[in-house]
UniProtKB/TrEMBL annotation, chain A:
<dbReference type="GO" id="GO:0003735">
    <property type="term" value="F:structural constituent of ribosome"/>
</dbReference>
<dbReference type="Pfam" id="PF10213">
    <property type="entry name" value="MRP-S28"/>
</dbReference>
<dbReference type="InterPro" id="IPR039848">
    <property type="entry name" value="Ribosomal_mS35_mt"/>
</dbReference>
<dbReference type="GO" id="GO:0032543">
    <property type="term" value="P:mitochondrial translation"/>
</dbReference>
<feature type="domain" description="Small ribosomal subunit protein mS35 mitochondrial conserved">
    <location>
        <begin position="171"/>
        <end position="258"/>
    </location>
</feature>
<dbReference type="GO" id="GO:0005763">
    <property type="term" value="C:mitochondrial small ribosomal subunit"/>
</dbReference>
<dbReference type="InterPro" id="IPR019349">
    <property type="entry name" value="Ribosomal_mS35_mit"/>
</dbReference>
<protein>
    <recommendedName>
        <fullName>Small ribosomal subunit protein mS35 mitochondrial conserved domain-containing protein</fullName>
    </recommendedName>
</protein>
From TrEMBL, chain B:
<dbReference type="GO" id="GO:0005739">
    <property type="term" value="C:mitochondrion"/>
</dbReference>
<keyword id="KW-0687">Ribonucleoprotein</keyword>
<dbReference type="GO" id="GO:1990904">
    <property type="term" value="C:ribonucleoprotein complex"/>
</dbReference>
<keyword id="KW-0809">Transit peptide</keyword>
<protein>
    <recommendedName>
        <fullName>28S ribosomal protein S24, mitochondrial</fullName>
    </recommendedName>
</protein>
<dbReference type="InterPro" id="IPR026146">
    <property type="entry name" value="Ribosomal_uS3m"/>
</dbReference>
<dbReference type="GO" id="GO:0005840">
    <property type="term" value="C:ribosome"/>
</dbReference>
<keyword id="KW-0689">Ribosomal protein</keyword>
<comment type="similarity">
    <text>Belongs to the universal ribosomal protein uS3 family.</text>
</comment>
Amino acid sequence: MLPNVTNISKIRLTHARFFIFKTMHALARKHARCQVKNNARISQKTRTDDEFRTLELVKERFKRTPRREREKREVPQRRHGQNIDQDWGSIWPVARTFHPATVPLPIRQGYPATSQPIPDKYGNAELMKIPNFLHLTPPVIERQCLALKKFCTPWPAGLETREKQIINFPLTLSTSSYLHSSPSIRDPRARVVTMKVPVDALNLDKHALNKLLRLVVDRYDPKTGLLTLVADRCPLSNQNQEYLQYLLTVLVNESKKSGPFSHEENDLFENRVFSWSKVQTDTTQRRLNEVRGEAMSSEFVQEYEKVVTEIHNSGEDDYTISQYRDAVLKLYGL
Amino acid sequence: KCLCLTTVRSLKPRTRINMSAAVNVRLSNLLQSCLIDQIKWQSIRGIQTTAAVNKSRSGRYKVTRDRSRPLTYEMANQPCQIGHRKSWNSWNTTSLLDGQREPETSIDDMFIRKFVTGTWHGLFVSEIIIKRQHNMIRVAGVVQRKVLPRKMFFLIGYTEELLSYWLKCPVRLELQTVEDSKDVVYKYI
């Protein structure tokens, strides 16, 4: 509107008047009365028409355009294009969280709210939480077994029954390995190795067997006749295995050794069996005679012998004790 | 006297009681005697004479007047329903006998949940489910379709990659998408 006054000297006198007029006019225009309201504008819209242009006294309020609704994307569901005779194994090859649009089954899960149906499979977190075995359908299992079959060898010929296996392979070494759902595969229990041998398979004579049993104590189970050795002293399981083999060798060799004291007459202690003939002394005979006051009849004494042997060898229980009672009563003549 | 006190306190000033005249007189006498007592009692602190209820308040949402609060199935079932109507969100072998790495796994789970919720900001509509199988971690959940599929693919790849580097395990994201958060509402409370 107003020209920029850079150099006053440049303004010529002839232009000054015009200059002043211009400023006054501009000021007048700015005056409120003279001001044409911004609202009342000649409508631009009907410019193109030949019709009479309308004067809008009140400008249309700025209308908010309605929020553009998010276009609902049509998401295709895989289950729609599946045939009845399709190969499910290629659609669901591995263990996978349940996906409702892929699984063609109409499954529902959950406790229904009042007057509501059971929640369906869409948006159902409960169905996603539980483990599913959709990757292990019978046809898939069959296929996997067939694939593994070529790596299998037949079962050895002479080892059909368990008895045959024990006869041919009496010694067993067992280890366990452990899996965890963690990034580490280590488990301290995996180094433990157990060895089981039936003691009869070791081919020991009576003395050697006795010695072995004394050396081994609790590791021998008399019910099954198995010797059990456990090793966990080394950090690796193969080291423990080797240790056990060494241990068994040493045990057997030691038990076969015998010193000058080993074959003494009084080997009750050695044999761990009570026998009357070895134990009986004169005192017992005399006492028995005193009881009766006369010489004992041999059959009562024999019965007494038998019963006492029984108690010592097989332990005290109702039967043996009652037998003992009967024998004693007979001795006393009651 | 205690009884009087409770009756006086329970009578709110705004409530109107229509009673017969005789009852009114009785009431006024009662009130007089009680008010005197009340003045005496006001200066003394009361002690709880009834047994404490100790109600459980965990995982329970307050009912609104106009039934406007939406609840998902997870929210609607309280923690006491886990194992009955609800299942667990974390599946791993740590809680079995001689299961190892239990505290580390729990902390890892917490981290995964925070990270995933933050990365997929405002997109997860269900709880985050974490399943561990051998070495693998499988993260599952329900997601809204607020973002373009292209962006979702990026987020999946980003999450899997970073988590697998941090946790030193292969991580897989197995998501289900849902149009709107209203699709997972179980009931309104």
